Amino acid sequence: MLTENKFGKYLTYAVGEIVLVVIGILIALSINNWNNDKQDKQAELKYLNQIRKSLQENNLILKERIVNDERTLKFGDQLYNHFNAKKELNDSIKRILVILLNDQMISFNIAAFENLKNDGLSFISNDDLKFEIINIYDKELKYIQNIFANQFENYLSGVINPFFSDNFEFVSNEKYMSAEPNNYQDLLSNNKTTNIISMVNAMRSYAISNYSNTQKKINEIIIKLDKEIKTLNE
């Protein structure tokens, strides 16, 4: 009887020890999971803030490009109307002709997105937001920076530059550069002049529309980013 009591006490003690060990393990796992969740949330916040900053910078790039292209398009319309009406050449038109050749390659800030892709898009818990981020960088901005820009550059180097090289001499002074026609009357009678100007204007107009639409999408994503960042910080 005494032996049975000792065994019962020992068994109770052993079971208690096992329960304590299990509880300890569960607590440790819970703490570890909590730490992992906290680290994941911090990582997600870091990436979301980086993407937000990147999109703001890209929005500014688009804004500046729109202002520049709207100005250039205005000059382009002035050129087209001048040549289409076969007006007399003046110094203002000579200077504006040079602007027609002015085109700067557009380059976006994509470093934050590349870091996110390399480290793992799984950090972004909101699937809808993740899709929109991927779409704006891999589709919208990539199209503007690569495909559309290359199309304009190809037209510039393949059509516009050769036309100007054949028909103009470029003269520069301390204030500005101007394009002097080799034979102005030939340019007036040649439909190619107005066709080229019209094509450049159409491409710039399309670019402005594309930039504006992309800006709108970026602004919508920034609003969603702000909401997600606020939720994660609560």
Report on this model:
- This protein is mainly α.
- It has one domain (44-233).
- It contains 6 helices and 2 strands, in the order H-H-H-H-E-E-H-H.
- The chain has helices spanning 2-84, 91-99, 111-119, 127-167, 184-189, 191-233; strands spanning 168-172, 177-181.
- Helix 1 (2-84) runs antiparallel to helix 2, helix 1 packs antiparallel against helix 6 and helix 4 packs antiparallel against helix 6 (191-233).
- The radius of gyration is 32 Å and the shape is rod-shaped.
- The model has no long low-confidence stretch (mean pLDDT 84).
Name the helix and strand elements from N-terminus to C-terminus, one letter apiece.
HHHHEEHH
The residue fraction in helices comes out at over 70%
Main sheet: which strands, in order across?
Answer: 1-2
Q: Runs with pLDDT <50, length 5+?
A: none
How many helices in DSSP terms? 6
Counted beta strands? 2
Properties at a glance:
two-stranded antiparallel ribbon, single chain, mainly alpha, 82% helix, 234 residues
Task: Summarize it.
The chain is mainly α and 234 residues long. Helices cover 82% and strands 4% of the residues. The protein has helices spanning 2-84, 91-99, 111-119, 127-167, 184-189, 191-233, and strands spanning 168-172, 177-181.
